[in-house]
Structures are given as C-alpha cells and as structure tokens.
Amino acid sequence: MSSRYPEEAPASVPRRALAMTCMTIEDYRNTYWPQLQAAVDRLLQGPPPPYHTGQVIEFEPMYSAAYKCVCQQHSEALYNDLMSHVNKHFIKVAMEMQQLDDFQLIDSYYAVIHRVIYSLDGIIPIFTYLNKVYVSTKLSSNLRTELQNLFCTAVIDPVIDKLMVMVKRATGMTTVTIVPHVIATLVKSIHKLNPNYAQRYPQVFAQYIPGVLPTMREHELPGYINETQELQASLRQSWVSSSPRGKKRCLDEEMHT
Is the pTM of this model over 0.85? Predict the structure, then answer.
C-alpha cells in the first residue's frame, strides 16, 4: 500500500478548510464513498502477488476522504456502507468455502484467514477517524472488533464445528498430511479473531494457546506431562516419516517455541 502524498493544496487554502468544504449527500454517494469502496475492494483481495505492477492504493487520499466524510456529518452512513459492503464480501467467501471437501478445510481456512487479517490491517487505518469519532464514541466498540465479528459470523461460525473436528483428526493422524505449523497458526488466528471459540473447544485450543484451561492441580500434572510427551512423539514421528529429512529440525524448533 503506497504512502505517496496527494498534490499539495494551494497555499492560500488551509488543509483544514478544504476538509470542511461542504459535502452534500450526493457528493458522498457519488464521489467519496465510491472512491473508498474501490480501495476496500482492492484490499479485500488480499496481498498482491510478487512483482505486483498494478494500481496501488494511496493511503493519504483515502484517509483524507474518510476524514472529510466524518467531519461533514456522514459518519453513520460511512459506517453502515463500510460494514454492509464488507459483509457482502464475507458472505460471498463463505458460499465459496461451502464447496470444499472436508480435508481441504484446514489449508483453505488458513489461507482465507491470512488474507482477511491482511485486508483488515489495510482497511482499518483508512477509517481511523471514523473509528475514533463514531465507532468508539457512539457504539462503544472499535472498528477491528466490528469487522472481525462480521467475518466470524459469516465465515467461521457456520463451519467451526467441522473445522475443529478436522483439527483434532489431523493432530491425531499417524501420518502428517498437513504441516503442523499450518494447524497451529490456524487455531491461533481463530482465537485472535474471537477468543470465545476457545470456550466451546477448550481441549483443542489448549494445545496451542496457553491459559485456555483452568489452572491445573498438582495431582493432574503427571498425566498432563505424559499426554503431552505422547502427542509430541506422535507428531515428530509422523512428520519424519512423511517429510523431507531437513524438516525434522523445523518441527523440533517449533515445539520448543
């Protein structure tokens, strides 16, 4: 995302005065929101491929457009348009994911969540002023939480049960068909998007997220240690038997982190 600056305003017109130039609802609908929507659409596509040569998003013009919308009393319209547009995209993603075979779920949702987190990291700074003036003050929330809740409701909630079953199944396989790092990152990312999932599936999340389960009592410690050692041995053996020799070291390093 480019940080190039727009052309400077004439010296006789202060930047703040430009920001306060009257914006009608027609201006908002026909000029400002279409510009912001196009930027959001590009960011929702996810990271650009290597050697990307297409149009880049200039941050400051988009931030300035959103800032002006808020200053001109279009905060509610801007918030509603942003949430509605992003939600339509998430619903489309969810429908596409419904076509997947069960054994594609982990890799596919790993990729989808990576793309969404990248997208939100680009979208939210553009709407910083909306977040500060409207979402935080009027809704007692923040824009990241609102957008992550949209994603979880549309994309994760319908498949979370099946996805957790596949995670448990993949973890217990004698031969590893999915890279352990992918499983771990997927679970951690889902927890980052909505920690409440860990309350529904504590045993799954506890393998990757510290502090999910209640504090262990002393007499339970030996059993937990044995269970952990057996799981690590199973994963290590299946990793070695199904992966190139050089990857064993990666797994060992990962287990110590």
Answer: no
Alpha-carbon Rg for the chain in angstroms: 23
Whether 78 and 30 have beta carbons less than 8 Å apart is answered as no
Single-letter residue type at 88: K
List per-residue pLDDT tens for the chain, 257 residues long.
444 333 333 333 344 444 456 899 999 999 999 999 999 999 999 887 665 555 567 899 999 999 999 999 999 999 999 999 999 999 999 999 988 888 889 999 999 999 999 999 999 999 999 999 999 999 999 999 999 999 999 999 999 999 998 888 887 654 556 788 899 999 999 999 999 999 898 888 988 988 887 665 566 567 656 656 665 665 555 445 444 444 444 434 444 44
Give the count of beta carbons closer than 10 Å to the beta carbon of residue 13.
10
